[in-house]
Amino acid sequence: MKIVARVIPPRSAWVLEQAGVHPLLARLYAARGVLGKDELDDGLARLLPPDTLRGTREAAVLLADAIAANQRMCIVADYDCDGATACAVAVRGLRLLGAKSVSYLVPDRVIDGYGLTPPIAERVADRGADLLITVDNGIASVDGVAAAQARGLKVLVTDHHLPGPQLPSAEVLVNPNQPGCDFESKSIAGVGVMFYVLLALRSELRARGVFTLANQPKLDVLLPLVALGTVADVVRLDANNRRLVAQGLRRIRAGSMQAGIAALFKASGRNAPTATTFDFGFALGPRINAAGRLADMTLGIECLLTDDAARADELARTLDGINRERRDIEGGMRDQALLLAESLFDASGDSSEAPPPAISVFDAAFHEGVVGIVASRLKDRFHRPTFVFATSAAPGKEAELKGSGRSIPGFHLRDALDLVAKRHPGVLLRFGGHAMAAGCTVASEHFETFSKAIAQVAQEWLAASSLVRQIDTDGPLAREYLRVDLVDTLHREVWGQGFAPPTFSEEVEVLSQRLVGEKHLALKLRHQGQPIDGIWFGHTDPLPAKVMLAFRLDADEWQGVRRVRFLVEGAEG
Questions:
Q1: Distance between CA atoms of 389 and 402, rounded to whole angstroms?
Q2: In whole angstroms, what is the distance from residue 413 CA to residue 363 CA?
Q3: Helix (H, G, I), strand (E, B), or coil: what is residue 10?
């Protein structure tokens, strides 16, 4: 592991500090490319205009016409947190804007697979819908869109995934990554795309005289859902996404949120008045995702749709229970996957042997709903692009393996799958995704071919330096900043993918160390001559007396007293 301090442009830091930004925050923002205080303005007026997102105007006309004609709309959602929040935003928003008949359908991960497939289109048509709207999926659903249109449905696709070689023939496509779209925020999540469609629809309805600026519905009530889905989908937090998240957090902290979000905070033991992006990514998001992984995402969507606090609490407790089950399954799968991965390069017991450039593992006992999480764990452990496969549980698909992959910087996972598909026709039955996360299906007899093919692509694309895990940090931390109030200040800011949370690095003395809970290392450290506690979650190997650590700041409470502690992220060496 290599610890590298980010370059902090001194002029940018000085400009921010002169504009009134706290010196520590000025340094952190400058290191993340912020050039001026105006970039930190998270007001709604600073959001990118909806009409710059290709297709929103046409979508607004399509939806406004459907509302005027009292047509029946059906949302087809994805079964992850982005899809669930996007579905809730669509249903709530369309109803706010006058739609009388809005239903939704979410595919079953095992039986239906991903996206708008022809069978899903048939089910929507059988429900009597007039307009089918996809959220967080659809850009690759060429056959599904055609099947829907063959049944007389109009189709609006709202998505953010990368398109394939052929676009579906939907009436309207809204996707920042479609050809010809100049929308600056290519990283907007599926829930953000749907929110933008609603903004455009409201504008169209004003133009038609349905609303005025004075009496139009307030769509900002949906921002807590937008913020949750954006962070949970681990999209890059560019300036526009940070504004959406900041606006959602502001409302949650003020107590203005959907009953389901409040219930999820309660069920996860988190505090809504001090909500952070970490709560979204590590508490609320996983509980909603668990429904799609092990049960039915309808549970997660209903939790986000209900306005009944008691019903929301009941659903949130159910989701919490499913998430506990998910953690149990994941634990066993992770241990087995770790053994399988180590056998790829350490069968002789020679621990100095390096892992292959990409890792693919499969076990007949794996649960397909959890393969993505396990792939992420292995990727973190070995710093290699990683795929984990499970046997498909869909009826009649027992000979297929469903795989989920996670990547490292410099290796575009979907592009790599595309190259594998071209080099080995027939090996990949289906694939799709992003640069850092993707999914695919292979016939069981082709697993070894896939494993070797993806490793070959990684061998060609990744330099040796890319295969060494690197932690980018903000360098040393002045002792004067070891204050609880500054920890709270840092936590209130919007951090996440592409706008990394503050991580510092320094050589410290290790005064004592012990295992807690059999899997965490509790530390007593000396930092710049002063003692401070630290903890390294999920790490059990002892540290030397002096060591270069990468760490984040946290506030630990003991007997009513809050103290700063280090959350260790890694050690050099």
A1: 5
A2: 22
A3: helix
